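SEQUENCE-TO-STRUCTURE ENTRY
===========================
What this section holds: a protein sequence and its matching fold, both as plain text.
Question of interest: how does this chain fold, as expressed in backbone structure tokens?
***
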Amino acid sequence: MDKFYLLGYPLSHSYSPKIYEKLFKTLNKVASYSLLPTKCEELEERILWIKLDKDVLGFNLTQPLKEEVIKYIDVLDELSKEIGSVNTVLVKDEKLYGFNTDYTGFKKSIEPFLNEIEGNTALVFGSGGAAKPVIKALVDVNVKSVFVANRTFEKALKIKEMFGNKVIPVKLEEVESVISGVKIVINATTVGLNENETMIKSEWINKDMILYDLIYNPEKTEFLRIGAKIGAKIKNGYDMLYFQCLENVKIWYGGFNAQVS
């Protein structure tokens, strides 16, 4: 049986096994996809263990491992090099090949909003492994600018170095002063896994905004509840997850592009 894993911590919220179970069935593959709770200090040992199991064809990474894993990757594709974040690994011939499909998943998930987003301003909370592909995708779909707010301001400054002048780092205490002119607000942090936590205040939001939370479980975080109450458009991260799962299956079982849709 082919084996695949999700590494990260915490993992109890993940829907990935259910999605992959359906995809593997569609492809007539006898394969398993399991959760493997892994903290940063456990990652090296986990990777050594995975390499020893010849049945493992690949694995995914979620927080906090998307940047940490890079030092263990033998070959990075160009996108993951540029973004500095890996969420998908192909194990082949005892080598690890790193990819970023979060970018594709997010970009495809915002297609219904492209006419509203293009030429307008975005605000992203976060600057880690989940935020980077989101910020690159926003730049690539021609937003006017992207405010990046993070607890550690220096990390937001590094995002500007990576993606150019469209990125405007802001401190968390400055968000209130810039958010009124923003079209889409995106939470790319883990704040909200606990349903009562949020990065925003209701008085900051108006009905013309789009609120997007990468978290999909809970289905509606406090961040999204605030948006819904105001009358803004809201979206969680399930579609992003699903679209990147499709890309991952293509990477692991190359040649099945036409069958997976």
About this structure: Residues 255-261 have pLDDT under 50 and may be disordered. The CA atoms of residues 4 and 33 lie 5 Å apart. The first helix runs from residue 16 to 26. The longest strand covers residues 2-8.
